[in-house]
Design brief:
It contains 3 helices and 3 strands. It is an alpha+beta fold and about 100 residues long.
Length: about 100
Amino acid sequence: ALANQHALDILGKELNTVQGYKGGDAMECAYARLPGGCGKTEHCKACTIRNNVMETFNTGRSLHRVPAYLNRWVGNDKVRIELLISTEKVDDTVLLRIDQMSQ
């Protein structure tokens, strides 16, 4: 498995703590903790990350350096992280690449 080391550093994660998890769970999206979980909350409908992954999965079209954001809880504070993301379909899997990430 692969993961962007810069993203892991910003998130304070190790590779083995994100393997096999949905993106929102691995990145600790503030909304993934709500009932239903990652991909199943009202907020997920407008999630750029989720929508780009699904578009690439459904169409096979890669997307490059799309602006997105992630809201995470850090202690009691909700922190917005700005991202540029790219997606690519390989067989039946969509690879999500974080090209840029800043708090």
